[in-house]
Structures are given as structure tokens and as C-alpha cells.
Fold 60S ribosomal protein L17-2.
Amino acid sequence: TRFCRGVGRTAQAKNRHPNGQGRWPVKSARFILDLLKNAESNAEVKGLDVDTLYISHIQVNQSQKQRRRTYRAHGRINPYMSSPCHIELILSEKEEAVKKEPETQLATRKPKKTQALRSGTSS
């Protein structure tokens, strides 16, 4: 309910909601893009292949709110809190698939009880 006021209407949101209201998280997306660029440069420094990297884990946790104060009419003061977060991002290299060797089945003798159970006959 905190961030839902003042949402404009757009044609791209008409299939999602009947009134066509929608918006895009520009600030959040910018932070994620900056983190990805930073992770890419870190991978280059470490000598990893940047083209094979993929996001193996991403997690966003709330962090402690930062307090400020806003001054109101009649000498009142209200809190003016920010909502920061911790973003955890792990990139991994795609491993190349290795072909599995064909299994060579060895002819093993099974006990007669096991053979009888498999064939459905009773002795």
C-alpha cells in the first residue's frame, strides 16, 4: 500500500490489469544492472570466461532502516525512514557437458530364486 499511489496508465499494461495501470521498477533494475556490470568486471580480473557466466543465485534481504526526521505543522516530528536492502548475487560458469561412456553390461549369473521371481514362475 505504500508504493501504489500515483500509478499512471499505459497501453503495455492493458493485458495485465483491466484499468491499464502499470509501471516498471527503473531504480531497482538500475541497481541490478550495476551489480551485474561489477560482477562481470570482477570475473574478468579473476580470469573467468565472461561469455559462459550465468546467475546461479540471487537474493535480496531487508537491511536495517535508516532513520531521519521530517518536521510537520504545529511542532510535530514524524519519522522519515529509508528502506535499504542487501543484494546477494553469485555468478557461475557453465560447465561443458561431457559425454557419458556407454556402459558395458557384464553377463552376471543371478541366483535361481531371483530369476524365478523375475520371470513370475514359482518353484
Strands lie at 53-62, 66-71, 77-82, 85-93. Residues 11-94 form a domain with the Ribosomal Protein L22; Chain A fold (CATH 3.90.470.10). DSSP finds two helices and four strands in the chain.
